[in-house]
Amino acid sequence: MLSIQSISKSYKKQQVLQNVSFDAAPGECIGLLGPNGCGKSTLLHILSGTDTPDSGTILFDGKNLLKNPSLQSTKIGYVAQNNPLFPDMTAMDHLKLWYSATEYSIEDDLKDGFLSILKIEPFLHKKAKALSGGMQKRLSIACALASRPTLLLLDEPDAALDLVCKEDIREYIRLYCAQGNTVLLATHEEADFDLCSKLILLKDGHARTLAADTPVKEIIEYLS
């Protein structure tokens, strides 16, 4: 169980997050919605350990996440929007780097694990700079999953991807949640709402929780 309790964050005089609170249970995909600059990425940065809140608490499996950085490195996978890959390293080089800190096997996962589901093998020996946007996103997700995290943070994973790649990634999210894991999904894509058990709308630093089947018109009216 993930419990975000009264998280606040400001940069200089701008209040980005203000007393944001919500829970996410095992097996849930939670959609994070809001206009650009509303704090979606900031919240994901805080959860991943790349930023710290001004106040608030985050409990993960009953432990204070902010005081247990080892949890953030082993139990949480984070996929940034811009695919932070090394241009001259191959996909296999990236996987070896991320798998080096785990006891898991790249070969086993390519055969019948999540690397097979993500269809990594066809571009395994291509350099990152030669990969399409969809391939880069698949590789970024694969790296984030190397340690078998139970919480996956995805920052607009289907932005600028073709329809087939978008659906492949959505199908993997469904499978990942079906295995009892949790996803926080920052998105602008209406099609992603079908993946979610609830939606967290961020606006002016505040969070509002809505059912995943809330009419889009109502969501737009709130965010406008």
Automatic annotation (TrEMBL):
Domain ABC transporter: 2-223
Stated name of the protein: ABC transporter ATP-binding protein
Protein family membership: Belongs to the ABC transporter superfamily.
Entry GO MF terms: ATP binding; ATP hydrolysis activity
Matches recorded under PANTHER family: ABC TRANSPORTER, ATP-BINDING PROTEIN
Stored Pfam families: ABC_tran
CDD domains: ABC_DR_subfamily_A
SMART domains membership: AAA
Domain of life: Bacteria
